[in-house]
Amino acid sequence: MSQLNAFLSGRSIAAAVISVIFMILIYFIGFHTPRIAFEQFFLLYLAAFALFYMLWLNRQQWDFKMFLAVAIIVRLILLFSVPELSNDFYRFIWDGEMITRGINPYAHLPNELISQGPIYTDQYMRVLYHGMGELSQEHYSCYPVFNQLLFYIPATLFDSVQYNVIGLKVIVILADIGVIFIGKRLLKLVNLPEHNIWLYALNPFIILEFAGNVHFEGVMIFFLLLGIYYILIDKFIFGGIFFGLAIQIKLIPLMLIPFVFKYMKWKRSLGYTATVALVVLLLGQLMLNPKFFENFMVSIDLFTRSFEFNASIFYLIREYSFASVGYDEIAIYGPLLSKISIVGIVILAVVKAVKNELSIFSGMLFALMIYYSLATTVHPWYIAMILILSVFTRYKFGLIWSLLVMLSYSAYGNEPFKEDLLFITIEYSLLYLVMIYEIIRSTKKDDLGLQLKSFFSN
């Protein structure tokens, strides 16, 4: 027995050492790796991912509190870092500062405001303007109202980029910690191992994109999981409230609602839908009149017509466009692919049986895969939704994608900015191979189960 205890103690010490090295790697990525240094970034990320997976494989050595401590500490390490891999935070702060000045962020383009006296003469606002980049300067804000209110909170307290970033990170980190607890509770509810949540919470991808790059997908995921949890425990009003809040962070959860309908009785679906709509509309009324809503939707529409990054199927179509007509036809194919993805998601929702709680998660997972496979832009942080939903399914291609998607940051290592199609090819080839393999394996298991059930029932 003493030898066994010594062995287990040794393995626990090894896990502690791995955790410390993991934190050091995250620190160096967050504080000492400029985004133009892609080789350095990806090697450090690859090492951090390997250590994360080693911790996962030895998950039985520590209890929930120990892993939670590591998850919180590694996030706090990045609290004072300035995001390197994304400049979106400049627009977040800009929008928040607009509200503090009594200016609706949906009313004016940054290009219009920067030429006005009070903004032009404010050095702090000029730093934000130049930091957000040309694309953001030329478009109305595309962030929903509840998200804007979260931008507003630190803006009321600070007139500093550094302190505003810290304020935004506190909000994101708190939501991320909330995801750990609600995810653990959901896993218990659906009879899955509670330690599955560490595939999300200790993943360096999540840590870097949320605590590091301050993307609010983490906040959206928190409210989304709360919404799903309350639906599964038969409290659809609370489920609708939190689902509505998730939509008011990012619009993506809108396409997941059909799978909730399949799970709920039709009468409750009506009440649930009314609750979601009420939350979305009430919050929207705070800042959106018809004109401002039109501006908001213009930015959303331009996203499918103008932006392209790390796409898969669209890039194949783009190559065909170059070969056939000599130019990029994104203005045609972007909206078309978006419509096709919506039709595909509706068809999936109609034909997929949602017999239990786990069916909701798998339906949502593949709905998002349809959407992102046909999207013109797939930023790395978008994959967080795929990863968290996969935690509640038998599919783990989301975990593979959380590793491979970081190859897309190779574009920042090129001057001028240019995507490396070789890396994108590697990313999506491996992703789709793993996904197809898992689907085939899952189908075979289901078929075998049906055959055994039929055999024993006869």
Uncertain spans = 1-8, 447-458
Gyration radius (Cα, Å) is 23 Å
Largest sheet: none
Helical fraction: over 70%
| Helix and strand run | HHHHHHHHHHHHHHHHHHHHHHH
Say how many strands there are.
0
* Total helical segments: 23
Strand content: under 5%
CA-based shape: globular
Distance between the termini: 49 Å
Write down the overall mean pLDDT. Answer: 90
> Class by helix and strand content?
mainly alpha
Name some characteristics of this structure.
mainly alpha; 23 helices; 0% strand; disordered C terminus
SSE topology sketch:
Blueprint: H1 2-32, H2 38-57, H3 64-77, H4 88-100, H5 110-113, H6 117-120, H7 123-132, H8 134-137, H9 145-155, H10 161-189, H11 198-201, H12 204-212, H13 217-232, H14 236-247, H15 257-263, H16 266-285, H17 290-306, H18 313-324, H19 330-351, H20 357-374, H21 383-390, H22 397-404, H23 421-457
Helix pairs in contact: 1-2, 1-3, 3-12, 4-7, 4-9, 9-10, 10-13, 13-14, 14-16, 15-20, 17-19, 19-20, 20-21, 21-22, 22-23
